Write the structure tokens for this entry.
Amino acid sequence: MRIAMIGTGYVGLVSGACFSEFGHHVTCVDKDASKIARLEKGEIPIYEPGLDKLVADNVQDHRLDFTTTLADSVKTADAVFIAVGTPTRRGDGHADLSYVYAAAKEIADAIDGYTVVVTKSTVPVGTGREVAKIIAETRQDLKEGTDFDVVSNPEFLREGSAINDFMRPDRVVIGTNSEKARQTMQRLYRPLYLIETPIVFTQLETSEMIKYAANTFLAAKITFINEIADLCEKVGADVHDVAKGIGLDGRIGRKFLHPGPGYGGSCFPKDTLALVKTAQDYHAPLRIIETVVDINDSRKKAMAQRIIEACGGSVAEKTIALLGLTFKPNTDDMRDSPSLDIVPALLSAGAKVRAFDPEGMQEAQKLLPAIDYGKNAYETMEEADALVIVTEWNEFRALDLERVKDLLKTPLMIDLRNIYNPEEMVSLGFDYSCIGRPLRALMPQD
Ligand SMILES: NC(=O)c1ccc[n+]([C@@H]2O[C@H](COP(=O)([O-])OP(=O)(O)OC[C@H]3O[C@@H](n4cnc5c(N)ncnc54)[C@H](O)[C@@H]3O)[C@@H](O)[C@H]2O)c1
């Protein structure tokens, strides 16, 4: 089958490469000419483990190519996926659908023969219907059901493990009211049928809702354990043991119970906000998600204060070394990363900040120009007054702690990801602070 993937970002490029690996012919389209030029030269514009090889193999086998011209690829496609961004609309928190609608118009102009138009972007309920309307209005010769159908097929991949998530997903969700479109989607996902992946077929609107319900639930789960962690600190309990103790209950599950500096990234912050706005528009407010959004925003801001307190109440003239800037490991994505709240707050409290991230530095330098960047973890912490772990990259999990202690001016580590063992850190002579694991909980109570 032939696929046109409109938008060649984190989702479009991974999905396009994976569909070509399934054996389909995929053309990835992007209006960003520099991105397409790099891809044509064999360069991958984002960091995603394994993506370079997957792309190279499929380009070599002539199943994957790249273009800035949408029309040619749409004309010959059985299915056109819209995988453009849906960021927060400036000013009001709704999802900005201008990229989706612009793509829908361009697709309409190019449709030639029955085409399934699939929204893979995360889009609010009603967007699929609107896309169908735009296509029908742009090309009055086209009839929905005969010349085209619109399907919702939200993506659940996670950056950092995106290829595996796409190739072996927990489930695939497909929303369509058309039997013909359903058959096309079944053929596209045939390799996943063969490995017995659950495929959930729903109405269009339900599928759109599933994506937001999933993301906001996960954001709420993280926020829940973050608040429990704060309480653990006060009462002398260990949040890791609490997470294990509750997570073993099958109704709760162990995943997404790791406390930290608050969720960030390209999805949770904007999707929680967008669902809150949709719910308000329909006079069915989601008070639980409104609260999650508030708590998470203030948590990210509070992290700088936590660092300042660990530094004795002031960071003025102190050098703070940060390890990790991206919102999570194994990606170069800096969107809504907690570091974007932490760094400016430290700077305005008078600190000098030096930072290192294995893959995110290029993007970070654009967003955080007023700080110094180290070449590696050890160089970054030289003569620093405190070391802060912001993102739990594997290479930060096994630092040579004696060397760390020697390099730091004072042996103070603030571990916002709980990757070190408090007992060990204390016994090595560190002043160690982490989240939800008070040192008191380690000591025998009298
Ligand atoms: N990033 C993730 O982990 C993830 C996971 C699941 C779902 N999503 C959703 O997928 C969508 C895409 O996210 P992303 O992170 O890949 O975004 P992204 O910003 O990385 O990529 C979007 C791309 O679309 C291109 N584009 C915009 N308008 C276009 C047009 N008319 N024609 C051609 N190209 C166009 C942009 O140039 C950009 O390269 C969003 O709705 C997001 O919420 C993202």
User: Anything to note?
Assistant: DSSP finds 19 helices and 14 strands in the chain.
